[in-house]
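Hey, resending since the last one bounced:
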Amino acid sequence: MADIFPVVCTDAIEASRDFYAALLGLEVVLESGWYTLLRAPGAPEAQLGLVTRGHPSVPEGFGRRPQGVLVTMEVEDVDAVHDRALALGVPIVQELRDEEFGQRHFMTTDPDGTLVDVVMPIPLSPSFAREVAALRRARRAGSR
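The structure tokens again:
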């Protein structure tokens, strides 16, 4: 595999481009009118594509509005991105919080309703770390 990145269908490619660029500091690498590729400065492997919903490159029936899809964006400082989200007035659908499974995160939606989870890794809670260790031991014991 050479690369993997999400491509999100959108009704408003410019609004979506501006949303991801402003919120996450992504730069436009390519624009064709119906397709936009964004990339994180200094991290060429961190990419996001946007394609106009209904474009012939998207098979019939697959350009519907998102449902059950979560696009996760890992950042170095989730608090700073959360502050930026508030300043931009983007919808916050899950407030900033720490999770026992090792994430500090908040969730928003892009202009087309795609759920965007902005995360920063944090240490696992001790109880969760014990659960993971016990699961690993059980799997190893079961594979013998």
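The longest helix spans residues 126-142.

Sorry for the duplicate.
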